[in-house]
Design the sequence.
């Protein structure tokens, strides 16, 4: 199918399954759809490993001092859990911003790499945990067929895993595939930083001790600090703070906790410090921020 036809097919299929603004999970567990009919504010999120394919519109993503601008001609990959900010910059009611997020699974990557003879990624370790790459017709085609399964529930258990495996294959063999392959190498620096991130996520409520994180990653504390910052654009302590604040926001919004209880639940001992750091990250104190999120389906979502 010609690339123009693939692009139009993706737009039509995404609009059919996402008629209103917001972010919605689908019947396919790794596929999420986002729609916005206008530009959005910059939204800080803890983004899980995923590939984001813009179907229509454009977006700006900030990771520390790094800025990524992309549209339907490029796709964005987050290889590890990252604290970043995203902002829709091109969207109108007639041509809304449309994006598909396909969540990445390290086990799926490892399984696919087994038996494939792909080159090693020498010299590509411990870079940023996010990157852009040009969209190809085969990748668009795979996403279009994945969307098509939403209309055929009976086909999903058999064909879903096959198409998802094809998407992973396209990513791993693409121009930036070496960066994903590094994560599958247990001894690589990228994989070690991935383990450090996993340790912090599992223990975010506790006082962070860099020596413990370094031990979990199999690195010296100095190496951990250097390569952790290269990949995430922040220190382990700053990363833990983002996790705490994002979880507190979820507790207030989804479980109805008051701000003081949410702050205490995620590890803060001082309500004033929690409120101050929450406002610094999200731009408003907890009550006003969560009221805004309830009123606007796109205010706290970014894809």
Sequence:
């Amino acid at each position: 199918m010609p690339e123009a036809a693939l692009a139009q097919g993706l737009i039509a299929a995404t609009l059919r399954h996402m008629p209103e603004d917001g972010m919605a999970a689908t019947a396919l567990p790794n596929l999420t759809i986002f729609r916005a009919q206008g530009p959005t504010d910059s939204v800080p999120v803890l983004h899980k490993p995923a590939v984001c394919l813009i179907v229509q519109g454009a977006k700006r993503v900030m990771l520390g001092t790094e800025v990524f601008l992309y549209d339907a001609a490029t796709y964005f990959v987050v290889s590890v859990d990252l604290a970043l900010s995203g902002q829709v910059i091109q969207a109108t009611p007639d041509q809304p911003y449309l994006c598909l997020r396909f969540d990445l699974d390290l086990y799926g990557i490892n399984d696919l790499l087994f038996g494939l003879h792909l080159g090693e990624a020498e010299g590509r370790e411990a870079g940023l945990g996010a990157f852009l790459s040009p969209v190809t017709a085969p990748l668009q085609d795979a996403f279009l067929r994945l969307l098509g399964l939403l209309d055929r529930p009976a086909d999903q258990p058999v064909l879903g895993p096959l198409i998802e495996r094809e998407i992973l294959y396209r990513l791993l063999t693409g121009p930036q595939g070496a960066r994903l392959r590094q994560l599958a190498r247990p001894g690589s620096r990228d994989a070690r930083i991935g383990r450090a991130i996993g340790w912090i996520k599992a223990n975010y409520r506790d006082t962070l001790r860099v020596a413990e994180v370094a031990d979990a990653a199999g690195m010296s504390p100095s190496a951990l600090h250097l390569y952790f910052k290269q990949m995430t654009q922040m220190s382990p302590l700053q990363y833990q703070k983002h996790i705490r604040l994002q979880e507190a926001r979820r507790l207030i919004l989804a479980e109805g906790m008051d701000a003081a209880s949410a702050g205490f639940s995620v590890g803060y001992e001082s309500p004033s410090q929690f409120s101050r750091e929450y406002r610094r990250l999200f731009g408003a104190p907890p009550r006003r921020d969560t009221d805004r999120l309830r009123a606007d389906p796109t205010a706290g979502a970014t894809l």
Remarks:
- The chain has a mean pLDDT of 91.
- DSSP finds twelve helices and ten strands in the chain.
- The two ends are 26 Å apart (CA to CA).
- The longest strand covers residues 82-90.
